[in-house]
Amino acid sequence: MRVTLRFFDGCPNWHTAQAALREALDATAHEKVDIVLEKVESLEAAQRLGFTGSPTILINDKDPFCTPGSLPGLACRIYNTPEGMRGSPTVEQLAALLR
After folding, report:
1. Which of 24, 29, 32, 80 has its CB surrounded by the most CB atoms within 10 Å?
2. How far apart are CA 92 and CA 8, in angstroms?
3. CA distances from 30 to 3, 38, 39 (A)
4. How much is the average pLDDT of 4-24?
5. Per-residue pLDDT reduced to its tens digit, 16-62
6. Which CATH number covers residue 59?
7. What is the 3-state secondary structure (H, E, C) of 39-91?
């Protein structure tokens, strides 16, 4: 399994997403899986990668939280969670994807 966390420095939520992702990986017997961090540094890179906001989590190179019609750019991403709109998915949402 390949897990990637894409982010840009101006986003305060990528650290929270990284911690939640690590917790979800550990809770689903994927403790040996490394999280690959990919820093997106320009609008051109965002467009080339299809980066629709920070943090973006890719599992086997696919964005399970992709929203059709989202445009690439350097912006903070918002996730719909059971607790309401947040800057990153919950541990439970991530664990469900990893099972």
Report:
1. 24
2. 24
3. 10, 20, 23
4. 96
5. 999 999 999 999 999 999 999 999 999 999 999 999 999 999 999 99
6. 3.40.30
7. ECCCHHHHHHHCCCCECEEEECCECCCCCCCCCCCCCECCEEECCEEECCCCH
